[in-house]
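Example (one chain per record):
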Amino acid sequence: MSAFVTALGWLGAVTCLVAYVLVTRGTWAPSSGRYQLANVVSGALMGTVAAASGVWPSFVTNLVWGVVGLHAVVVALRRRARRRAEARDAVVTLPTAAPATLTPAVPVVVDLAA
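Predicted structure:
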């Protein structure tokens, strides 16, 4: 196996572990697009190494791992687009005030001599 393929495998393993640590520490949410994208990348890279090595159970596992992550990325992107569209389309309605009725002020006379 070439050194390049081995390096890709290591990059995939590090990506997977870093993403796991960030989710475990609460830095990333498990449903976040970043985490799921890291799963797609790590699954693809480690699956490449497994296929190059002929380790087919690992290849299939990483393939499924990547497909699940890709589905989650698509769901996250759709959710984000929907939220942006809802925010853009939101209409702000201000409460209408009843028309003010003005009553004439009655002049008050103050007797300063008293």
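Caption: The helical segments are 3-24, 33-53, 56-89.
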